[in-house]
Amino acid sequence: MPRIVYVMDPYCPWCFAGSETVQRLLRDYADKVEFYLLPASMLTHEYAFAYSPCQEAKQLASLARIEQATGAHFGEGYRQTLKTEDEMWDSTLSCRALEAVRRVDASQLFAYAHALLQARFVDGCSLQDETVFLTLAKHFNLDMERFLTAYRSEEVAEAVVKNFTLVDDYAEVYPTLCYEDNSVKNRIEEGQGTYTEVAERLNALLVGAQPTEKSVLKRGGCSGGVCEL
């Protein structure tokens, strides 16, 4: 069976904007393609940075552009967080949480990722606070002991690093949806596309149509800590 590799990062506002489309694709095409989530580790190492409220204006301007381009709405909780948060923005812990979910109950991974984006960009939760990940794990009825053990394990830490090296094979910006069949990769979304646009391209690939560069969707997205239109 072919698969769609979904490259995303919990700190990526474009991933939040496109998450509903991914959830709908999962519901509509789960019997036709396998879905695989690849956390991007967008803000790690040299790309992690210390956020302070003095950067609020720049962040709000970026959110406004994303809302205008996509129709998404960032919650008041997140907007208030930008006024007060003073901590490192580093994807490592949130990506470890996603890898822990994969090991405990992979069937919940996409729903958990969607909820994690909502927790950040609607409610304004800190992604440096492991109680956020535990609260979501409890919400999805995951085995809490197994989740916490996996989250804190060296195996998961190593998997996050490995994911980061794999991302370049599938994506240049986040989010990306990459259709893979017999090792042949075709990106069906880069940045943000409507459900109709993405589904049309996916349907063509499923019936064996040859994609063209013109049909690749690329508008906006994040890469290496930078969000752009």
Quick summary of this structure?
A hairpin with a 2-residue loop joins strand 8 and strand 9. With 229 residues, the protein is α/β, with parallel strands linked by helices.
What is the makeup of the main sheet? 5 strands, mixed
| Morphology | globular
For the secondary structure, the number of strands is 9
Share of helix among residues?
40-55%
Name the descriptors.
single chain; 229 residues; alpha/beta; five-stranded mixed sheet; two-stranded antiparallel ribbon; 9 helices; 49% helix; globular
Describe the protein.
By secondary structure, this protein is α/β, with parallel strands linked by helices. The protein has helices at 13-29, 56-70, 76-84, 92-105, 109-121, 130-139, 144-151, 154-167, 195-206, and strands at residues 3-8, 34-39, 49-51, 87-89, 176-181, 184-191, 218-219, 221-223, 226-228. The chain has a 5-stranded mixed β-sheet, sandwiched between helices. Strand 5 (176-181) and strand 6 form a beta hairpin. Helix 5 packs across helix 6 (130-139). It is globular. The two termini are 34 Å apart. The mean pLDDT is 91.
Task: Provide the fold topology.
Elements: E1 3-8, H1 13-29, E2 34-39, E3 49-51, H2 56-70, H3 76-84, E4 87-89, H4 92-105, H5 109-121, H6 130-139, H7 144-151, H8 154-167, E5 176-181, E6 184-191, H9 195-206, E7 218-219, E8 221-223, E9 226-228
Parallel strand pairs: 1-2, 6-7
Antiparallel strand pairs: 1-5, 3-4, 5-6, 8-9
Helix pairs in contact: 1-2, 1-5, 4-5, 4-7, 4-8, 5-6
